[in-house]
Write a structure and sequence with these properties.
The complex is a heterodimer of chains A (272) and B (290). Chain A is α/β, with parallel strands linked by helices and 272 residues long. Chain A contains nine helices and ten strands. Chain A has a single domain, classed as Rossmann fold, CATH 3.40.50. By secondary structure, chain B is an all-alpha fold. Chain B is built from twelve helices and no strands. The chains are: A alpha/beta (272), B mainly alpha (290).
């Protein structure tokens, strides 16, 4: 009955929830006693959202993303992805996950790396070839299919890793500080490309970052988190338009949101 | 070509030391003979004598070289390459046991390492036994393996191969356990995000990751296999094989025969390890890892 009601509401508002966390908590048992990585997290992520998670180290932002991906299991509360449990969603290959490091297999070419999840999923060879070509175009790596990872720069490797996460057409893209190890200029460039890619594919994106400008520039929704225990300090719906040139970062709206994010981060540190 | 000079320098130094050692070690016997014959030896005569004794303490390189040629190249020229007196025949006997033992050891080692990596019970229980197995001197256990296997009707090649296997599986287990565990957490998590099966994880991630660890293990295993095969030939009083040549040589004080068998074994080991090295180069290059 409850589920039915929710569907009515979704239809009325024109949005549907893709990821939903209710009273989510995760406690790691360590030798120094329990560590509360996440405590009472409530969050709805709707279809087509670009959600950034920002906060200091140890605030649980990566852990939260890993819960969505079923790489960690919450100790209390509930998380659903596409209306089913995180585990079922993972088994249905509902999301692509981009790690902080590209993690390309050195013994496979760029094409071979992108093909890897497709082979695992049992896609036939012709479909694999087509998918590899598509995503290489999408991340602007045309012509690099037969190169080995070490022949590419760090930024290009990370783009290949994004292509790999996109190749099997999951509607959700989870990214854990994907540009954290790259320099500012490459990062700006990749941010622009990521927005462009998001606009073209209409995916729902969860994005963990340390950088306030990156979070504000990319997101429709910014989730500010604070540590010990990891919890949500603020959720900011961005008023910025979907079309975002790089110089939007000098606009008053941008600066105002950045300011609010900084306040949220500072408030989280208040009890230290 | 750039490497040739240092290599030749080292080889020349070894030969110089070897000759000096031959003169020093063989001189007492030359003096003995001279004294009994009641003659004085000049230095030149002394050195000439140490270079050409029948049963020298340390045969000089040219005597060993001549013996090796006599039992290999010269036999081939006479069309008797596989006669019982030919080192080629004896090398082949030892080589066949070495290769069979190496194959068995590699297979067994890889199987054990997969078990250890994927099964926690095996991880906890097998590794101590694997290490304990290598603390037993092979000379102590080799005769027992041969006697026990002989009692159940197995003799010839297989007992020697099993001793080779006993020595060669160890470096494979150690190397492959390390290699199969070499993918980091992130790569294993990645496999999980694609909902890969255990088998896919093994064939597509763990096995390829272990290749740089496998080849060094294979080289050590090959050398150990050869030692195992030779040791396996000693306690049985075997009539064929490099081990039998060593044993026969030591019974009759034929030092030249012992040294020629030793040198042949060393050349054999170097060749086998060299072949693995070449395969390693090709495989890792094709995998973009070298």
């Amino acid at each position: 009955m409850g589920k039915y009601n929710k569907t009515i509401r979704e239809v009325e508002s024109g949005v549907s929830s893709v990821i939903s966390a209710k009273n989510l908590s995760l406690t790691f048992q360590t030798n120094d006693g329990p560590v509360h990585a996440l405590k009472d997290i409530n969050l709805e992520i709707n279809k087509g959202d670009f959600v950034s998670f920002i906060g200091p180290s140890g605030c649980g932002k990566t852990t939260f993303l890993r819960c969505m991906a079923d790489l960690e299991q919450p100790t209390a509360g509930e998380i659903t992805v596409n209306g089913v449990s995180a585990r079922e969603a993972r088994e249905a290959r509902a999301y692509g996950y981009v790690f902080q490091h590209a993690g390309l297999y050195p013994w496979r070419t760029i094409g071979g790396n992108i093909r890897l999840p497709l082979e695992i999923m049992g896609m036939d060879r012709a479909a694999q070839d087509a998918a590899v070509k598509d995503v290489l175009d999408l991340v602007h790596l045309e012509g690099f299919e037969n190169k080995f990872p070490w022949q590419l720069s760090g930024g290009m490797q990370q783009r290949a890793s994004i292509a790999r996460a996109l190749a099997f057409h999951a509607d959700i893209l989870l990214m854990d500080e994907p540009f954290g190890a790259l320099d500012e200029i490459v990062r700006d460039h990749l941010n622009e490309q990521l927005l462009d890619l998001w606009a073209r594919t209409n995916k729902t994106i969860g994005f963990v970052t340390h950088s306030i400008p990156e979070a504000v520039y990319l997101s429709t929704k910014i989730v500010v988190m604070s540590p010990r225990p990891g919890r949500i300090a603020d959720v900011i719906e961005s008023p910025l338009p979907k079309e975002r040139p790089l110089d939007i970062r000098d606009s008053p709206e941008f600066i105002e949101i950045a300011h609010r994010v900084r306040d949220g981060l500072r408030a989280g540190h208040g009890d230290d | 070509m750039k490497n040739l000079f240092p290599i030749l320098t080292v080889v020349a130094a070894i030969f110089a030391l070897w000759y000096a050692g031959s003169v020093a070690l063989n001189a007492p016997w030359a003096h003995d003979k001279a004294q009994r014959a009641g003659i004085e030896l000049t230095t030149k005569e002394l050195i000439a004598d140490t270079m050409a004794q029948k049963k020298p303490k340390l045969p000089p390189p040219h005597q060993v070289g001549a013996e090796i040629w006599k039992t290999t190249g010269a036999m081939v020229a006479k069309g008797r390459a596989f006669s019982k007196r030919s080192l080629i025949y004896h090398s082949w006997i030892t080589l066949s046991a070495t290769l069979l033992g190496f194959a068995l050891g590699t297979g067994f080692g890889i199987l054990l390492s997969v078990g250890i990596v994927y099964n926690r019970t095996m991880d906890m229980s097998v590794m101590p036994w694997v290490i304990a197995s290598q603390t037993i001197p092979i000379l102590a256990i080799a005769p027992m393996i041969i006697v026990v296997l002989n009692a159940i009707g197995i003799s010839g090649l297989l007992p020697k191969a099993i001793i080779s296997m006993y020595l060669s599986f160890f470096p494979i287990v150690v190397g492959m356990v390390k290699g199969l565990r070499s993918p980091d957490h992130m790569m294993v998590d990645q496999m999980k995000t694609w909902s890969a099966s255990k088998g896919q994880e093994f064939w597509k991630l763990r096995l390829p990751s272990s290749m740089p660890f496998l080849f060094p293990s294979l080289k050590i295993a090959m050398a150990a296999s050869l030692v195992g095969a030779i040791v396996g030939e000693l306690p049985t009083g075997a009539v064929a094989g490099l081990g039998a040549r060593l044993l026969g040589g030591s019974y009759y004080g034929q030092t030249i025969q012992i040294w020629s068998a030793l040198i042949t074994a060393a050349v054999l080991a170097a060749t086998l390890v060299g072949i693995i090295g070449m395969i390693q180069k090709v495989v890792l290059k094709r995998m973009g890892m070298a």
